[in-house]
Amino acid sequence: MAKVQPKVALGDGFLQAFASIPRKKQKAVMNFVSKFRADPRASGINYEVIRNARDPNFRSVRIDKDYRGIVLSPEQGNVYILLWVDKHDDAYTWAVRHRCQIHPKTGSLQLFEVEHELESVEEDAQSPVVGANTLQDQPEKVDAPVNSAPLFDLEDDVLLSIGVPQERLALVHSLTSELELERVERRLPIEAFEALYLLAAGTPLDEIIQEYSVSKSKKPVDTEDFERALENPATQRRFHVPEDEQELGRMLNAPLERWRVFLHPSQRQLVERDWNGPVRVLGGAGTGKTVVAMHRARWLVSQPDWPKDARLLFTTFTSNLALDIADNLRKICTPEQAQRIEVVNLDAWVSQFVKRNGYQSTIIYPGGRDRHYSNCWNKAMALVPGELDYPDSFYKEEWQRVILSQQVRSRREYFNASRIGRGVALNRRQRADIWPVFEEMREQLVRGGFVTVEDAMHHALDLMQSGGDKRSYRAVVVDEGQDFTAESLKLLRALVPENKNDMFIVGDAHQRIYQRKTSFSQCGINIMGRGRKLKINYRTTELIRRYATALLEDVEIDDLDGGIDSTNDYRSLVLGQEPIVQNFSDIDSEGEWLVQQIEQLKDDDVSLSEICLVARTNRLCEDYAQILQNHGVPTHTLSRQKSDDRSQEGVRLATMHRIKGLEFRCVMMVGINKGVVPLSVAINSSQDVVEQRLTDVNERALFHVAATRAVRYLYISSHGTPSKYLKHDF
Q1: Distance between CA atoms of 212 and 106, rounded to whole angstroms?
Q2: What distance in Å separates the CA atoms of residue 79 and residue 426, rounded to the nearest whole number?
Q3: Beta-bridge partner residues of 717
């Protein structure tokens, strides 16, 4: 009879504890885990009973003379779970304070603290053998103020269905406020706390039940079947069975990067399933959209029916985001999987594609990025009719919003072009008068051998639609979908044949900082019935989320497909502390205060590489870097050409655009002054009230993006007259 291979899982708590161990000790732990995974029943592994442990399945294992591991080793089955690792006494104390069990209703494996009854035996918990275990399970409760209404008026069956353990029912019934709920977080399994928190925040009960009542089987849950419990989606957000030694190594080499392995059930439902067409995933900052997109790409190329020579295109809007994504994909993919995924920002892809197909023109970009573009434009503007009193900005906007986006190449086409959304109305005569400006611009581009990126994109689309280039992708995954133009989305639709699992697009219009809104359906991307939304912010605290979102509350934000998106169903699960907002008379005083805060953060064990100063412009980044350096604080300015190496010492500096897609334990938004945020040059670049309003929304979104990069601490400082964005009542 064939020998049954044991199943060994690691808990996220084990990885967190492992990360806290001194590096010189981590090697011993890694060696042990590797041997343990190979054979948890090997004779050299000595299991010791922890008699005072609240969980009878807990055992300790010896790592070395100083360290012990805590293992869940059920009497039945062939499953072993590494739960914790620590110094000898601390490991036993942890074991006495925790329980890991299968919930009888949801079927998920739950880990939670039971410390509150154990203070009287804390000293005994230092030893694995302490005599008879006299502790009994007692229902817990929080003393509530007299006449206080309960926070949850729910029957026990309802509470059990969303993951509340039987022994925690009295505790939940005794709660009278969200603050009390937060105080008992550690005494509840993570999914139960999350469901209760969202319920208290106003999420309808039927949505909570649909999301957290995860047991789909009609059969009773077997509370001793740990192997089946490990297959439960709710379990997999905290426990993972490594596929092989290589994945185990990746987990232990980056133990704090939980996103690599652990997904929320709502995220896993998006990743690990077949879709009958394009999928759109919305989600506020910190909800894990990019993580979901990366895991989706990995899952697709790892499926048995994925041809070895087929490729997946993973694209985003900017080059630095593409670099960050490529770096992170290498962390979760095998070399074979990574070879099947091409990561590139779309402009770079278009450039490579048209050149490969014999395109001789050089792609140039507006906005001061290319002097050739400016030279062509200046010559075209010489033909502006003197009798028309339109500002220069009007012609730039007309060129970008109408001529290029609709590929207008003749006066007749311009007469028929749509100008919906333009703030200045034009009759047929006025269009005829200004057409020579755009005609000359096109002529100048041709003479110089140049082409705009919009024209190059249309050329690429023509090639695809005419069959001039073979479609080479089996699927497309798109990050930051809100920043793509209609032309971009049409091109992406043409890149992959319409089929199941063809397109997967994540985005959030609250973070749109580059373009106008675009409807997927109008670009040929049909997401009917396949629109989803992530609602839990895992990055920032709730008070930071509220602050960052407040600036957009009065702005109507689209859902990328013609509808309206809301932030009312978007929550963080940790309250945290209020953002700190300060104003100073001058930049030197502001700089001194920043240095003081950085020193305080260092005292709180926040490393310099976990702190990022964010300014609106590159010039301001340089100014603040010099101030910090003058005070002896090392700095490191983030590059647009490569991803951030956190092993490099120094406070990070980045523009609001560069920090997009990143996160830091502490974010310091600096120089948030009048004229800087919003940037007066951007706001005043147009006299069209419609354009000014759109630019203001983009500037607000940029502020929102920068603030939501903060995990725990958010500081916002200004000098002189502060930005009007800081005058809102948050």
Answers
A1: 8
A2: 73
A3: 582
DSSP string, 617-641: SHHHHHHHHHHHHHTT--EEEPPSS
pLDDT tens across 478-526, in order?
999 999 999 899 999 999 999 999 999 999 999 998 877 889 999 999 9
Amino acid in the structure at residue 101: Q
pLDDT of the residue at 423: 82
Using CA atoms, how far residue 111 sits from 95, 147, 235, in Å, is 11, 33, 10
Give me the pLDDT at residue 145, please: 57
CB 544, CB 550: distance < 8 Å: no
- The DSSP annotation for 202-261 comes to T--HHHHHHHH-----SSPP-TT-HHHHTTSTTGGGTEE--SSHHHHHHHHHSTT-GGGT
What is the CATH topology of the domain spanning 263-351+470-565?
A: Rossmann fold (3.40.50)
Q: CA angle, corner 32, sides to 29 and 34, nearest 5?
A: 110
Query: Could you name the CATH architecture of 7-137+219-240?
Result: 2-Layer Sandwich (3.30)
How many whole angstroms separate alpha carbon 120 and alpha carbon 137?
15
- Nearest one of 172, 482, 487, 502 to 313, comparing CA atoms: 502
Which amino acid type is present at position 722? P
Model confidence pTM above 0.85:
yes
CB 71 within 8 A of CB 83: yes
DSSP 8-state secondary structure symbol assigned to residue 287? S
When pLDDT is averaged across residues 338-347 and rounded to a whole number, the result is 96
Helix, strand or coil, per DSSP, at residue 722: strand
Q: Quick check: 651 and 611 in contact, CB under 8 A?
A: yes
- Those residues with Cβ within 8 angstroms of residue 526's Cβ, 6 or more apart along the chain or in another chain: 277, 278, 520
Q: Are 75 and 197 in contact (CB under 8 A)?
A: no
Structure tokens at 76: 């039945």
Q: Do the domains 263-351+470-565 and 579-727 sit in the same CATH topology, yes or no?
A: yes
What length does the chain have? Answer: 730
283 closest CA partner among 296, 292, 295: 292
Domain ranges of the chain: 7-137+219-240, 156-212, 263-351+470-565, 362-448, 579-727
CATH code that applies to domain 579-727? 3.40.50.300
- pLDDT tens for each residue of 616-660: 999 999 999 999 999 999 999 998 778 788 888 999 999 999 999
Reported as half-sphere exposure (CB side, CA atoms, 13 A), residue 10 has a value of 28
Cβ-proximal residues to 595 (8 Å cutoff; 6+ apart), any chain? 627, 628, 631, 633
Cβ 570 vs Cβ 537: under 8 Å: yes
Q: Which pLDDT score is estimated for 571?
A: 86
Strands (E), 241-360: 279-283, 311-315, 341-343
Judge if the upstream peptide bond of residue 678 is cis by omega within 30 degrees of 0: yes
Please check whether residue 50 is in contact with residue 58, taking contact to mean a CB–CB distance below 8 angstroms.
Answer: yes
- Alpha helices by DSSP H, listed for 125-204, are 156-161, 169-173, 178-183, 190-200
574 in Cβ contact with 541 (< 8 Å): yes
Cα gap 236→233, rounded to integer Å: 5
